[in-house]
């Protein structure tokens, strides 16, 4: 299986602008710029999309892992915070923190934590990002 995405950039780094698209059409000429990436201007950026990919991948994989352990979740909500900071003078994605809340009636917390920890290490996007990106997590059950 292969998934396809593309980007086009016009102009120099600071004043230029670009768009990102995916073959599925989910992203269609999504605009991005220096200001949306390195400052706080509204819009998207590659790091935000990496966060969305990590959160989506993790949530699906956790649901699968929990189901294998006899704990079928009603919901899994994951927020991924991607840290972009200078490392050796170059912008680097240095870490991703996952905040996870799962609603699983009658679930055992220790079992849930074990499955969440394994999923953090083994979901496909986590495996892609290793070893250079530190992934941390706070996972909790919702009553």
Précis, in short:
Helix content is 34%, strand content 36%.
Structure report:
The chain is of the alpha+beta class. It has 2 domains: 5-38, no CATH class; 46-142, GMP Synthetase, Chain A, domain 3 (2-Layer Sandwich). It is built from 4 helices and 6 strands; from the N terminus they run βββααββααβ. The strands form 2 sheets. It has a 3-stranded antiparallel beta sheet. The relative contact order is 0.14. The model has no long low-confidence stretch (mean pLDDT 94).
Mean pLDDT: 94
The name of the CATH superfamily of the largest domain reads K homology (KH) domain
List low-pLDDT spans.
none
Indicate the CATH class of the largest domain: Alpha Beta
Distance from N terminus to C terminus (CA atoms, Å) equals 38 Å
In the CATH hierarchy, the third-tier topology of the largest domain is known as GMP Synthetase, Chain A, domain 3
Radius of gyration: 17 Å
The H/E string reads EEEHHEEHHE
Percent helix = 25-40%
Number of strands: 6
- Give the strand order, joined by hyphens, for the main sheet: 1-2-3
Kindly name the structural category.
alpha+beta
Overall tally of domains: 2
Q: Judging from the principal axes of the Cα atoms, what is the shape? A: elongated
Give me the number of helical elements: 4
Strand content is: 35-45%
Biggest beta sheet summary: 3 strands, antiparallel
